[in-house]
Amino acid sequence: MRIAVMSDVHGFSLALRTVLAGLATLPPVDEVVVAGDLCRVGPASDEVVAALREWTSPTPLTVLIGNADQIVIDRARERESSPDRVVRQLGEDGVAYLASLPFERRITPPGGDSPDDDLLVVHANPHDLNRKLEPEMTDGELREVIGETRAAVIAFGHHHVSYVRPLGETTLVDVSAVGNPKDGDLSCRYTIVTWDESTKHWGIEQRRLPYPVEETAAQIRASDLPDPEDTLRTLLRASY
Asked: By percentage, how much of the chain surpasses pLDDT 90?
C-alpha cells in the first residue's frame, strides 16, 4: 500500500499542479490525502479548490480541513458587507465544500492491526487545527499535544517544515507545504508513505520538486491580493 500525503497549498495553485504532475510520474499510489489549508495566502484559492473538486484520476482522493480553511468558513458566516477576498473567490458553494471536509483520515493497512498499525493523517495534530507539532519540541511536549492517540504513523502539515521523528511506537511525519514551505528551501513538498506487509512497517519518502517561481510570481502580480509584492517576498524567503 502506498499513500501520497500533502498539505498546505494555501492558494498557490501552480505549486499544486506541480505536485500532482510529479506524483503522476511515480508508480501508482492507492490514495492521495490532502491534509488541509487549501486556501488563503496565495493568489488562487478558487483554482486550488476547483482542481480538487474536479479530481478525475481513478486514484481515491481525500481532502481534510485545515485551520486556514476554517477561517474562510468563519468569515463567510460573519456576513460582512465587504467579505474576505477568499470568500468572494470561492462563493457560497466553495465555502460549503470547505465546511464539508473531514478532520482526519485513518487508514488501516492490509494485514495490519488497528489502531496500532494505522496511518493517521490530520492537519495539525490529532485533536485540533491549531496546535503545532514542531521538531524542536521535547518528547514530553509532543506527547502532551498528541495525547492518547494511537497510530503507527501520524502525518500532518501546518508547521510547513519537513521532518520525520520517532516518538515511542509512533512516527511523526510533517509533510511540510505544497505552497509555501518555511525551512529555507523553496520547493514543492509531498510525502509517500508505503506499507510493507511482510515487515508490518511504514516507509517514509519525503519528496521535493522545483517550485514554479516565475509563473507563480506572474500569477501573484496579476491577482487581487492587497500587497502582491509582499506575498512574493514572503514566498521567496521560505521561512518564518
From this structure: 97
For residue 94, CA distances in Å to 60, 88, 100, 134, 168 come to 20, 10, 10, 31, 40
Asked if 164 and 172 touch (Cβ cutoff 8 Å), the reply is yes
Residue 124: domain span: 2-237
Quick one: CA torsion of 151, 148, 6, 129, rounded to 10 degrees?
160
Specify the CATH number for the domain of residue 73. Answer: 3.60.21.10
pTM of the model: 0.97
Alpha-carbon gap, residue 230 to 240, rounded angstroms: 14
Average pLDDT over residues 108-132: 98
pLDDT higher than 60, residue 103: yes
What would you measure as the largest C-alpha separation in the chain, in angstroms?
59
Segment 134-149 mean pLDDT: 98
How many folded domains does the chain comprise? 1
Task: Find out whether 147 and 168 touch, Cβ atoms under 8 Å.
Answer: no
